Known about the structure:
The protein is an alpha+beta fold.
Amino acid sequence: MNAKRPKVGAGAVDLDSLRARAQLAAAAAGLGSVRELTELSVGGASLTYRGILESAAKPEPFVLKLAPPGVEPVRNRDVLRQARIMRILASSAGINVPTILCEDPGRPVDTPPFFMMTFEPGESLEPILRSDQALPAPNDVSGRALHAARMLADLHSLDMGSPELAAEPRIALLEEVERWTSALGTVDGQLRDGADEVESALRAHLPESFDPVVLHGDYRLGNMLCSGPEVVAIIDWELWSISDPRLDLAWFRLHTRSAANRFAFREAPGMPGPDEVVAAYESVSGREINDMVWFDALVRYKQAAAAALIVKHARRREGPNAAGDMAKAIPHQLRDARALIT
C-alpha cells in the first residue's frame, strides 16, 4: 500500500526558521553548525528533512524529524516519543537504528518539536509492494528478510524494566481488534463488506497472549535501510507500542508472499516464506511461536482497514473513482482473513 497519504498539520513550515532552530540545538549538543536543510518527505504523521552538519572533522549528513505544525504532537505525531525508543534501542545488542543526535521540544502547536538523527546510507524498498523499483539480487532479498526476522527477535527481547517502558500502556489483543473495527466503521459499506464476520471470528477465537514486548508497529523491509543482504537500520518508529510479539511477526510475514497479500504487485525472488521467517525468529528468541493463524487473519483485517482509510481520504480529495484498484482488493483481503479462522 503505497498511495500517498495526505499532508498532516494545519501550518506551513518555514525552512529558514527550522534551520535556525536546528542550528541552536546542534550547537547546544556540540555537533557543529547546520549548513543546509532540505525537505525529504512531508506526508504521513511527521515531516522529514535532510541536512548537513559542518564540524571540525568533516561534513556529516543528518535527518531531522519534525512534528506537523498546527496540531498537537500526540500518538504517531509524537516525534520525541519516537526519539525515546530509538535511544533505548541504540544501546541494545542486535538492533540497528539511527543514532539520536539532539532534540528540541518546541512550543506546540505553532512551534512543533523535532529530533535530529544520523543519516544512515541504504536502500528502502518493499519488495512485493513496489513495482517501480528494480529488485535486489535474490541473495540480497533473502539476506535482508532473514536478518530482519532475527533482529525482530532481538527487539522483542528488550528488557522491559526501564522506567520509560514501564510508563507505556500495554495493548491487549482485543484492543487491537477493536482499533481496526473502529477504523472500518468510518468507511463506506462497500469498503467494509465482510468486515463484521471477520471481527466476530477474531473475537471468538482470541488466543492466549504472550508477555508484552516493544513492537515496531509496521515491521517490514520498506521501513528499513538495507545494503546488500544486511539491514543497516530500522526506521519509521511512529507506530511503536507494547503488546504481543506475534503482531509484528505476522505483519512481517504478510509482506513475504504476494499470494497472501492482495495489495502486492509482484513476487520477489529470494524472499523467504512465512515459515522460514518464523524459524529465523525462533532461532534467536529461543521460543516456539504458536497460534500464528489467528494473527495472520488479524493482520489481513488490519491491512484491509488501513487500505480502506487510504481510499476514503483519496476519494475526498480526488473523487469517487480514486484508488480504485486498492478499493477492489479490500473485500478480497477480508474474505482471506475470514477463511483463515473458520
